[in-house]
Amino acid sequence: MPEKLEKDFVKAVSFMNNYTEALPADLLLKLYAYYKIANENFDNPGSRTPLINAFKANALFQAKNLSRKDAMKKYIALVKKEFIDKQ
User: Fold this and answer.
1) Is pLDDT above 90 for 43?
2) Whose CA is closest to 25, among 17, 33, 14?
3) Mean pLDDT calculated for residue range 5-34
4) Please, which of 9, 13, 66, 77 could form a disulfide with 70 given CB 3.0 to 4.6 Å?
């Protein structure tokens, strides 16, 4: 895995972890799926709310064909497009 990609991904994740404003559910679900795939975490969603688990599982299903590298790239691109480039 290229070092720059790893660093950019960690930076984007850190940015989102420190972001405090409310986000649209569809954006959160995309970020969730990309993050899980990028970290090769294929555990089932762990929410106490079945509906939330269903949405998360669906987001993962839609992104299931992404490689770890592509998931990182998509996560970074989404953060840049929705947050960094709009500042």
Assistant:
1) no
2) 33
3) 96
4) 66
Length of the chain: 87
Task: Inform me whether the pLDDT recorded for 86 exceeds 80.
Answer: no
Looking up tokens 């972001």 gives 19
Cα–Cα distance, 20 to 44 (Å, whole number):
26
- The whole-angstrom separation of Cα 4 and Cα 84 is 18
Please report, in angstroms and rounded to a whole number, the separation of the first and last CA atoms in the chain: 29
Nearest CA among 85, 87, 21, 82 for reference residue 34: 82
Return the DSSP state at 21. Answer: S
